[in-house]
Amino acid sequence: MRMAELSTDTGVPVPTIKYYLREGLLPPGRPVGRNQADYGPEHVRRLKLVRALAEYGGLSIAAIGELVRHLDDPEISDNNLLGLGQLMVTARQEPLPGPHVERARRALDELCARRGWKDMSEHPAYATLVGVMASLEDLGHEAMLASLPEYAEAAELIAEADMRVVGELGDRERTLEVVVLGTLMGDTLLTALRRLAQANVALRRYGPK
Amino acid sequence: MRMAELSTDTGVPVPTIKYYLREGLLPPGRPVGRNQADYGPEHVRRLKLVRALAEYGGLSIAAIGELVRHLDDPEISDNNLLGLGQLMVTARQEPLPGPHVERARRALDELCARRGWKDMSEHPAYATLVGVMASLEDLGHEAMLASLPEYAEAAELIAEADMRVVGELGDRERTLEVVVLGTLMGDTLLTALRRLAQANVALRRYGPK
């Protein structure tokens, strides 16, 4: 198909398609004559992926470009691609230095060890966890840290469900989309369900307001 | 103690204390002579609460004012106060109208019913859930919705742990602080732990990258 048809099929405007081509987010079409190229179903799929990552995943064009390069690189294993997608949607908040940081680090290492998790100290989420745990101690709310084993158990329950969905796909393009969107939208689902569950547990314990 | 001492004790600058007094976030001190007032330990505690809600909870002065008025109102039950605190840190994203919204609503009602949760359709988190579930269908990712029962189970596990911490406090000021900070910081802990759990489940399934 020509670029005009590609645009109609995907709802992506022609100038945007040209921009994606220049940035390497979309592979070039097969040249047919001067200034004309032919596009196939792989271009439709790639365009849909790029749009989903940009609009729903909130990823920058640079980040999508990096993912797309890995997607097309046969040297990158599926598992590695999955890890890269996950890192793109993982915030890293460095803990502020303070007396409680070292203790938080030890507590988190113990928590990981108890669940049989590998050394995670290089993962950006590890830094975030240490920071929040140290802040809770700073604020005199170390009692909240007693819930961490349940939090970790719940996280693993969810991760197993997440990986089941990913494992059933078997298509790199689709897998990458699910990892990025599933991670982000899953966060929203999870925190919203936590609110409903809290309201229900409170209702069960204390009765109606 | 005088205002200068209250400021030293809490680290809150005198102009900020005066602002909080004007806004009703801090009850007035006991008048001693002209333009002088005496402040007690209840003022120290209240100031710490206001700072924690503003700095760590990200609540506006108006929102804190509302919570503080409820805190001082003996007509408001502990459970009601807890619910109000939770609502202050719950985003409500209305779903965009679309063909999948009604189906998402039914799926969520079923999910709640299976867990024995009460009708939650008035809760702001309910609207957010319907919106995300409908978006996943719009994007052709309805397969992800198959994980929702595990998400809800995990959410309940966490809510039980959250309520255990809250139930052990027995002090309204402290409870409100824990509900607001615990809800927000708990979200961060949970989503970060989910990342570590995903990395570990992937490692277990597919081996090192």
Question: Features of this protein?
Answer:
homodimer; about 210 residues; Multidrug-efflux Transporter Regulator, Chain: A, Domain 2; 2 domains; two-stranded antiparallel sheet; 2 strands; about 65% helix; about 0% strand; elongated; DNA-binding (chains A, B); MerR-type_HTH_dom (chains A, B)
Order of helices and strands of chain A: HHEEHHHHHHH
The largest sheet of chain A, given as strand count, sense and whether it forms a barrel, is:
2 strands, antiparallel
Estimated helix fraction of chain A: 55-70%
Tell me the CATH topology of the largest domain in chain A. Answer: Multidrug-efflux Transporter Regulator, Chain: A, Domain 2
Lateral strand order in the biggest sheet of chain A:
1-2
Shape annotation of chain A = elongated
- Structure annotation, total helices of chain A: 9
Kindly report the greatest chain-chain contact and the residue count on each side.
A-B, 79 and 79 residues
* Name given to the CATH architecture of the largest domain in chain A: Orthogonal Bundle
Low-confidence stretches of chain A: none
**The CATH class of the largest domain in chain A:** Mainly Alpha
Radius of gyration of chain A: 22 Å
Oligomeric category: homodimer
Give the strand tally of chain A.
2
Average pLDDT of chain A works out at: 89
- Determine the structural class of chain A based on helices, strands and strand pairing: mainly alpha
Question: Span between N and C termini of chain A?
Answer: 62 Å
Strand residues, percent of chain A = under 5%
Q: How many domains of chain A, as an integer?
A: 2
Organism (chains A, B): Nonomuraea rhodomycinica
Protein name (chains A, B): MerR family transcriptional regulator
GO molecular function (chains A, B): DNA binding; DNA-binding transcription factor activity
Keywords (chains A, B): DNA-binding
